[in-house]
């Protein structure tokens, strides 16, 4: 536990744990709403905010955070304009964000050097301000998911029925999109812009695959994300590898091993049932 003697590792574990719990819950809702690519899209949009902040001499974390929220609002408007082809909104906003980031980076070549921390994540990138920002987002997200847990459940599985029941679907969807932007922007210092979707999608993908119920999926996703982030940060420190890539690789291994174990258990269960049938016939 030598690594926990360092302040930057303490901040990284604290920030990673907070974001892991929040992002994993968000991931379950996004996957069930078939919006898994939304996190990836918003991470690319926030890159434009980071580039703008670096170019204008403003804190890139703050500008990335604000632009991610604006992107989340815009994508909700575009999604409603293309109801039949909702994935078009993801492509449109992603193209806009990436092109803006590339142009701003090209205008000032000196800002490229500091971008690796935002692109791939770094434990040393988590400062006190970012940690406080993550905790604030976690508090807001926790309150949102607790207060709107029942309406969100209905909207996730059947938006039209939720409207018929009188739920404010439009307002809740906007709030959900804004929260998604906030969580994506807050997760950037840990796993980076390019890998932020791994923290949101991979634990949820495993949980939805193996969980017997919606509530179980939320808990499995949270535990998987928490163990994955802590294991990834530890491996990153011991092996001197990039934290974002290491965390994403650990979560990917969890998903592969989890699916493998599930298939093995099902196969053994079928074999056991077959043996019992044969024994009953004899």
From TrEMBL:
Cell compartments where the protein resides: Cell membrane; Membrane
Membrane-topology annotation of the record: Multi-pass membrane protein
TM regions (residue ranges): 12-32, 52-78, 90-111, 131-148, 169-187, 218-237, 243-265
Taxonomic placement: Bacteria, Bacillati, Bacillota, Bacilli, Bacillales
An example Gene Ontology CC term for this record: ATP-binding cassette (ABC) transporter complex
Name recorded for this polypeptide: Zinc ABC transporter permease
Keywords: Membrane, Transmembrane, Transmembrane helix, Transport
Stated family: Belongs to the ABC-3 integral membrane protein family.
GO BP: any one term: transmembrane transport
């Amino acid at each position: 536990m030598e690594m926990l003697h360092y302040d930057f590792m303490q901040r990284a574990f604290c920030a990673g744990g907070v974001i892991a719990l929040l992002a994993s819950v968000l991931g379950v809702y996004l996957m069930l709403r078939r919006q898994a690519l939304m996190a990836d899209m918003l991470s690319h949009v926030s890159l434009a905010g980071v580039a703008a902040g670096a170019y204008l001499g403003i804190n890139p974390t703050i500008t990335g955070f604000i632009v991610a929220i604006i992107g989340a609002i815009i994508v909700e408007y575009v999604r409603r304009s293309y109801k039949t082809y909702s994935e078009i909104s993801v492509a449109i906003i992603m193209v806009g964000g990436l092109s803006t980031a590339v142009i701003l980076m090209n205008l000032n070549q000196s800002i490229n050097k500091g971008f690796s921390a935002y692109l791939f994540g770094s434990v040393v990138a988590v400062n006190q301000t970012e940690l406080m920002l993550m905790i604030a987002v976690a508090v807001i997200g926790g309150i949102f998911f607790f207060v709107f847990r029942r309406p969100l459940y209905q909207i996730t599985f059947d938006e039209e029925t939720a409207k018929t029941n009188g739920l404010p679907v439009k307002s809740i969807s906007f709030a959900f999109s804004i929260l998604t932007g906030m969580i994506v922007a807050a997760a950037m210092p840990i796993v980076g812009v390019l890998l932020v979707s791994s923290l949101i999608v991979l634990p949820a993908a495993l949980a939805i695959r193996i969980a017997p119920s919606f509530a179980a999926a939320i808990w499995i996703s949270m535990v998987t994300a928490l163990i994955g982030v802590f294991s990834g940060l530890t491996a990153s420190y011991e092996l001197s590898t990039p934290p974002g890539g290491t965390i994403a690789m650990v979560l990917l291994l969890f998903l592969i091993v989890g699916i493998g174990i599930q298939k093995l258990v099902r196969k053994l269960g079928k074999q056991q049932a077959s043996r019992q049938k044969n024994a009953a016939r004899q």
